[in-house]
Amino acid sequence: MTHIYIPKSETWVYEIENSIVGFISILGNEIGGLFVLPGSHHKGIGTKFVDFIKKEHSD
User: Residue 21 and residue 28: Cα distance in Å, rounded?
Assistant: First the structure.
């Protein structure tokens, strides 16, 4: 994971008050992982990540 996947992926983090509450990683045009801390669920963070990726990687 550390030597193969992470160097080849693009990763963004979501912060609230200087604390990371989630991240999304993509490899090519596919989402490899999307994680949001349980205490931050249902706040639209996952949707914001997906919308951001769609915008960044639209063909």
Answer: 24
